Amino acid sequence: MSTPKTLFEKVWQQHLVVAPANEPSILYIDLHLVHEVTSPQAFDGLRMAGRKLRRPDRTVATVDHNVPTSSVQDRLHILDQISSRQIQALRQNCKDFGVELYDVQAPEQGIVHIIGPELGLTKPGMTIVCGDSHTSTHGAFGALAFGIGTSEVEHVMATQTLPQDKPKTFRISVDGALPYGVTAKDIVLHIIGQIGTAGATGYVVEYAGSTIRSLSMEGRMTICNMSIEAGARAGMIAPDQITFDYLKGRRFSPAGDAWNLAVEQWSQLVTDEGAIFDRELHIDAATLTPTVTWGTSPGMVTGIDSTVPTLDPSASEADQNNFERALEYMALEAGKPMQEIAIDRVFIGSCTNARIEDLRASASVVRGYHVATTVSAMVVPGSQSVKAQAEEEGLDIIFKTAGFDWREPGCSMCLGMNPDILAPGERCASTSNRNFEGRQGRGSRTHLVSPVMAAAAAITGHLTDVRNWKFKEAN
Amino acid sequence: MIAINVLTSTAIPLDMSNIDTDQIIPKQFLKRIERTGYGEFLFYDWRYDLDTPDHVSERKDFALNKVEYKGSKILIAGKNFGCGSSREHAAWALTDFGFLAVIAPSFADIFFSNAGKNGMILVRLSEADVELLTHRSTSNPAHKITINLEAQTVTDDQGFSATFEIDPFRKYCLLNGLDDIGLTLRHESELDSYEAKHDEEFWLTPRVSAA
Ligand code: SF4
């Protein structure tokens, strides 16, 4: 028998075009997702060099980062000239190079990492890249998926490959039943808090264990999405029946005999018994609590029932400086109970938590309540299809009745590149993935939370432990 | 990327040290969607009179604006050229303007690598040699310099001759006009046969046609 292999090694080997000595390996790319912000210079590079886009059939584009989410009208006539030009450029580029584009009002449009899976473009065993760091999301299907820069975008366009040095492997196993009120978002925030924002740098992480196995595809995507926040090159989860059930019948999923053959192939994509990882970490799910960030990096986390941490005098000087700067920026004092932190805004959205299940979960908290008078709250579905599905289920009514703003799909307040931004000093409970200084607008203060915790905070006006929530039934 | 071996051109002298990438291309131009078209913004703050209402009147005394130097493909500058921010736009602006080479006593690291990715030849000469060439190009704009990459020499029409150092792999890439994409395409035949076989594995194609 051959040596046992990890899931990552299987996918890696299957995509090696050539591995020359003393040079990076050339890795074949199955799917290239493109959006408006990081692609224009790449398309231009192709033009300058007189090159073709090698595989338009392996390339799919959408608009998400820049599009306004306020109304269909605002999306069709974008006021910001720079955004508008960028989107216009993508349209022209896709036309010139024969790339399928899901434009602003197309039924397929949405955040690039949400539409890939929901259209069935994302499949187990693929290599997937996109000029956006949260491409790691697609790893939830057992794909090797990672973010790339503009020069690399051009490289993939021209050659459908990337020169890559082989990363190391890191298995994070989470076992046991999830305690009440703890979600996939809490798991990944906990992991980042534990290993640090550079804790997985140089590694591809495989998430394993019974807790991970029990998660839905939505939950698995949330976890893989934030792998990059721990510095990982990519996150992966082996495909299983839950994966196959999710993919079956999707627009670009195989059908009929082809489906059976595909499932047979995908079922091989598991880490073999006895395969060796460069690093391992075990987490007992019973120890997890609903988790929130208090500072300005996704690793600055604490339990919702805890307090803003105090300075660790044994930490390095640089870390102590970091800590103090974060407290000051967030306008928080050490020792303050997390639940006493009042918030101004709530953002339920982003490629981390804007799928249908996320909206269902937050709607269940919101039902029968009203947003606090001190809070302005918004729900931004991750895609047109999520939006349509939610409206079919009446979730939009629940949110709107409660005083939430129900918006059009896009990245929205995740990154402050479109009109959805926080005012300086505003504090937001956000289901997105980054709480860096200024990420949601200059001077913005972000607390990363799960969708249910964001919903609860919107109602109470402060960070809230969802484990004590009194759910109201539909009447 | 074009392959360059021998480059003969007049040269524009910028007799200053520590010319940083912020000067080469100011940050307000980084929002653009193109990799091309940065040439007109090259050395923006030095090239244009910013006090005039339209902000576009050229400063006659700045070397890049002088008609005598029009079409020059070589820039001569002081030491530590390209320091500061890592923006690749600096290299884009220089090549877009028409420069194919920069001669200086030393270059900043990141700029050095960015320039290489964009096919520019960066020539390190001694301070005395750079000074001499600067002087000749300043007093006589028609002064022509020849850079021979293969031979690693710089000569001019007045008997100047010097050699320069270059990393062999970088030289190989420049001589063959290879950028990263070019390097990958050395394996094109392997890629073609890999791809043909890989395409048969329909479950790895994004838009599946049922087998
Ligand atoms: S939602 Fe945020 S993280 Fe996700 S793709 Fe958009 S900007 Fe990037």
What features would you describe in this structure?
- The complex is a heterodimer of chains A (475) and B (211).
- Chain A has 16 helices and 19 strands.
- Chain A has 475 residues and is an alpha/beta fold.
- Chain A folds into three domains: 7-164, 2-Layer Sandwich (Aconitase, domain 3), CATH 3.30.499.10; 168-239 and 267-287, Aconitase, Domain 2 (3-Layer(aba) Sandwich), CATH 3.40.1060.10; 295-468, Aconitase, domain 3 (2-Layer Sandwich).
- In chain A, the strands form five sheets. In chain A, strands 5-4-3-6-7 form a five-stranded parallel β-sheet.
- In chain A, α2 (40-49) crosses α6 (150-159) and α7 (184-195) runs parallel beside α9.
- Chain A is globular and about 55 Å long.
- Chain B is an alpha/beta fold.
- Chain B has a single domain (6-177), classed as Aconitase, domain 4, CATH 3.20.19.10.
- Chain B is 31% helix and 18% strand.
- The model of chain B has no long low-confidence stretch (mean pLDDT 87).
- The A-B interface holds A 15, 17-18, 20, 23, 26, 28, 30-31, 40-41, 44-45, 48-49, 51, 57-58, 60, 82, 85-86, 89, 121, 123-126, 151, 154-155, 158-161, 163, 252-258, 261-262, 265-266 and B 1, 31, 33-36, 88, 117, 179-181, 183-185, 187, 190-191, 194-195, 198, 201-208, 210-211.
- The structure holds iron/sulfur cluster (SF4).
- The site of iron/sulfur cluster (SF4) has 14 residues of chain A, from α5.
Secondary structure: elements and pairs:
The complex is a heterodimer of chains A (475) and B (211).
Chain A: H1 7-14, E1 16-18, E2 25-28, E3 31-34, H2 40-49, E4 59-62, H3 72-76, H4 81-97, E5 100-102, H5 112-118, E6 127-130, E7 144-147, H6 150-159, E8 161-164, E9 168-175, H7 184-195, E10 203-208, H8 210-214, H9 217-225, E11 234-236, H10 241-247, H11 257-266, E12 279-284, E13 291-293, E14 301-303, H12 317-330, E15 345-348, H13 356-366, E16 376-379, H14 384-392, H15 395-401, E17 405-406, E18 427-430, E19 445-448, H16 451-460
Parallel strand pairs in A: 3-4, 3-6, 4-5, 6-7, 9-10, 9-12, 10-11, 15-16, 15-18, 16-17, 18-19
Antiparallel strand pairs in A: 1-2, 2-8, 13-14
Helix pairs in contact in A: 2-6, 7-9, 13-16
Chain B: E1 6-14, H1 21-24, H2 44-47, E2 48-49, E3 57-58, E4 74-77, H3 89-97, E5 101-104, H4 109-117, E6 121-124, H5 127-139, E7 144-148, E8 153-156, E9 161-163, H6 168-175, H7 180-185, H8 188-199
Parallel strand pairs in B: 1-4, 4-5, 5-6
Antiparallel strand pairs in B: 1-7, 2-3, 7-8, 8-9
Iron/sulfur cluster is lined by residues 64-65, 111-113, 132, 134, 350-351, 411, 414-415, 432-433 of chain A.
